[in-house]
TrEMBL record:
Native source species: Kribbella amoyensis
Span of the signal peptide: none
Highest taxon listed in the record's lineage: Bacteria
Domain Amidase: 21-451
InterPro entries per the UniProt record, alphabetical: Amidase_dom, AS_sf
Protein name: Amidase
Amino acid sequence: MSSPRQGTGDVPPVPRPAMATVEELQTRIAELDPLIKAVCTPNPAARADAARLDAERGDGRVRGPLHGVPVLVKDNVDTADLPTTAGSLALADQPPPPADAPLVRRLREAGCVILGKSNLSEWANFRGSSSSSGWSAYGGLTRNPYALNRSAGGSSSGSGAAVAAGFADLAIGTETNGSIVCPAALNGVVGLKPTVGLVPQQGIVPISHSQDTAGPMTRTVRQTAALLTVLTGGGTDYAEYCLGDDLHDIRIGVPRGPLWGYSAGLDQVTEQALELLSQCGAVLVDRLSLPTPGGDEDQLTVLAHELKVDLAAYLATRKEGAPRTLADVIAFNQAHADEELRWFGQELFERAEATDGLDSPLYVAARLAGLKAGREGIDNLLREHQLDALVMPAYSPAWSIDLVNGDHVLGSSSSHAALAGYPLLSVPSGTVAGLPVGITLSGTARSDATLIRLAHAFETARIKAHGPFPTPEFTQWV
């Protein structure tokens, strides 16, 4: 039941007509997706789109390296021909949005085939504090293809699980704090949260305009680079930064506290990753520390205030009949509690509804505190030690699914970059008891290309040392 992983880190030429590729993937999804529920809305027009792109190729018109390549899009990103639900029944019966999100328009213009929409943690995992990543009332529960009783992470659960399962090499995720890099790490794929603002945010169901961004989730770093080139409008060819495994001109910081020590197995694999980076020639500056990334209360204050304002602005773009405010969504959930509130509540929504706007002194103070903790923490460390990037363990190995009590995350490395709006890239580093784990690479604003270079070098070195990443077997973990 496993599917082969590419071992070179390259985006190959389309090996067969797009139609044949789409048909093959649709067959695989039909066979295996009932086990993991990664694809919530297949695109019925995918074959016709593939046939049209094949005809263009036959006429000598090739739009770029992703011409005819299938991609899955997270179900909080607007598609004019498919529903966009954010996993909620409140939007499930509404017509599709009136227009594609700008990033989807760029995908189509680049010749990508939209294969369908991928499931997510409902409302991008910001509804109730005891939520289970990967669950939505619309799409059900996405499971980890490496261990069906373990979490696929959130909130881009379906995107990560789908790439790992071989349903598509490319998928779009979104992140506010960990929602790309977490499922990337848990599912053994590459995930990049770009610098906030590098990819257009319009047409994405929001949580926070100061932290939200869409980004690539792929099998290889070079595929992430190619997809980022499209998502950002093509001004930079990020694939040009995939330069092999020579890092002799690079200095990488290793912040130990407070980002290590919560998983012995993860620490061990990360130490091996550090050795590979050193063998590539990188200078490792070890035993550093990042400050604690602000209080949880400040972070929640920012997200709650921005959600109320930003969600109302988004809902205003949807057609008449859809909810118009956060209060409307809360009321819908209360009226459909047996389905929507079966496993966890909506206290985060209710907290957000009680906020009083972005001029609130409470919001302004919390936002400034978060920026200070994130940006100064990263930038000061980079400047003081003349570093190009930081490397850390990504996330604890996938935890057991527990719909009653919610997630059991032991630790992560996403908060500093989230608060700062800076890029973060997760790349597979190995396994712990058969469960994928990764490292994250972090840098300052607009250092996305540098992170891609470092991740590609590490990926290349890891494959040379250990071979292709293991494939999922779609079984229970014991």
